[in-house]
Amino acid sequence: MIVVPVKEGEAIDRALKRYKRKFDKTGVVRALRKRQQFTKPSVERRFEVIKASYIQKLRQAEEEI
């Protein structure tokens, strides 16, 4: 359970924003969405390789500048 202490005089909007940030960091929603559909390990690996090559190209382009 996520607990967000509200300080005296603090706006509820600010506390709600802290709650949302903490909830997002837990990764619950991302895990649920990922489990909704099964992807084969080979497909996951392919996406990882594509992502790694993309990041490598970005870093190389940054070094050249």
Quickly describe the structure.
The protein is an all-alpha fold and 65 residues long. The protein has helices spanning 12-26, 28-35, 41-64.
Strand and helix layout:
Elements (H helix, E strand, L loop, with lengths): L11 H15 L1 H8 L5 H24 L1
Structure characterization notes:
The protein is 72% helix and 0% strand. By secondary structure, it is mostly helical. It has one domain (12-64).
Briefly note the structural class of the backbone: mainly alpha
Overall structural domain count? 1
Strand content: under 5%
Q: Rounded to an integer, what's the Rg over CA atoms?
A: 19 Å
Q: Which ranges are low-confidence, i.e. pLDDT below 50, for 5 or more consecutive residues? A: none
Q: How much helical structure, as a percent, in the residues?
A: over 70%
Q: Report on the biggest sheet.
A: none
